[in-house]
Amino acid sequence: IGLRTQAHVIRHCEIENTLHVACADGVKIEHNIIAGTKCGIVLDLVEGAFRTTIADNIIVSRDGAICLLSGSQIDIVRNQMEQGGGQRNANRLAQAQLIMRASRFVCTAINVVANNFGGGTNADCGIDAASADGNPLVDVFVDLNTFRSFASGYDVKLGAGVRNACFGENNRLRGNRDGYILNAHGEPQGAV
């Protein structure tokens, strides 16, 4: 989607492989079915881009559901995310369903609410968040999500540069288990 343009709405589409969004304010990605062998949605918004909504989508992509590279005030809500099988792309940033990296500038106010991080053989965790090139992710809020059991044993991995991450008390776990967060030092931080 166009560079430095705004107010795009992508709704009720069937998308194969990647929807790459590189634009400005007010983008809405809603009620879509996205599948394929690449990451479903890649957000690489221009600096100062605000109010992006990714809601009510079904995303079944081999290399992750959503990859956030840049942007602020992003709401990721009520999505069904799963990862299909097959050979993983070795060049991926992480083996997760939601990958967050602040690649070009600070990313702030990211809400991850009421999503289902479902099954898939290619997912090591539900959310993998870390800084890229020294740019932090700030004010990440995670609540009301459902996490399946992941290969790494962790539901969320927080790397260096993640500041003010808040995990609400209403995240749910599938199966009879505890959920865990892995911090930037590779140590368990606590329960989801």
What does this structure look like?
Strand 22 (180-182) and strand 23 form a beta hairpin. The protein has 192 residues and is mainly beta. It is built from no helices and 23 strands. Helices cover 0% and strands 48% of the residues. It has strands at 9-11, 14-16, 19-21, 28-30, 33-36, 41-44, 52-55, 58-61, 66-70, 74-77, 80-83, 96-102, 107-113, 116-120, 125-131, 137-143, 146-147, 156-158, 162-163, 166-167, 172-173, 180-182, 188-191. The strands form 3 sheets. Strands 1, 4, 7, 10, 13, 16, 19 and 20 form an 8-stranded parallel sheet that branches. Strands 3-6-9-12-15-18-22-23 form an 8-stranded mixed sheet, with no helix packed on it. The chain is globular. 41% of the residues are buried.
Please describe the structure with a list of short key phrases separated by commas or semicolons.
0% helix; mainly beta; 8-stranded parallel sheet; 8-stranded mixed sheet; single chain
